[in-house]
Design brief:
alpha+beta; Immunoglobulin-like; 1 helix; 19% helix
């Protein structure tokens, strides 16, 4: 068996590599958005806590925010969809640990809160 190298094989390989690199950079550019969050305490005995999420450098499109409570089990407590996600606020939260899953574009997602979660505390009566 004889294998011959054609000059077209190198061009085909190079073209495929360039196309893959270009497409992956295009997809990752679509997924660039920076998220920060702040938890605000709940009044004692009330479900009045808040989590505010700020987004900088958002890509155009619809963003879906889902808030999950972690309390032995994981339970979705609220979701919001918006196309202008500069700031999204979730209100009426009880003191607990939460995380937020954000999805946008065709394949983009980010989880806010990590392993420690976002902790909404209860305000101390004396403060």
């Amino acid at each position: 068996m004889e294998v011959r190298c054609s000059p077209y094989n190198s061009l085909l390989f190079l073209g495929t590599a360039v196309l893959l690199i270009f497409c992956s950079q295009l997809a990752s550019a679509q997924c660039k958005a920076d998220f920060t969050y702040q938890a605000l305490s709940s009044e004692k005995g009330l479900h009045s806590g808040k989590i505010e999420v700020s987004v900088s450098n958002p890509a155009p499109g619809t963003y879906n925010f889902k808030v999950f409570e972690m309390n032995g089990t994981i339970r979705m407590v609220e979701s919001k969809k918006t196309s202008s996600p500069d700031k999204v606020t979730f209100e009426g939260l009880k003191p607990a640990t939460y995380f937020i899953k954000v999805e946008w574009g065709d394949t983009c997602s980010k989880t806010l809160g990590g392993f420690d979660g976002i902790i909404v505390t209860e305000k101390d009566q004396g403060r």
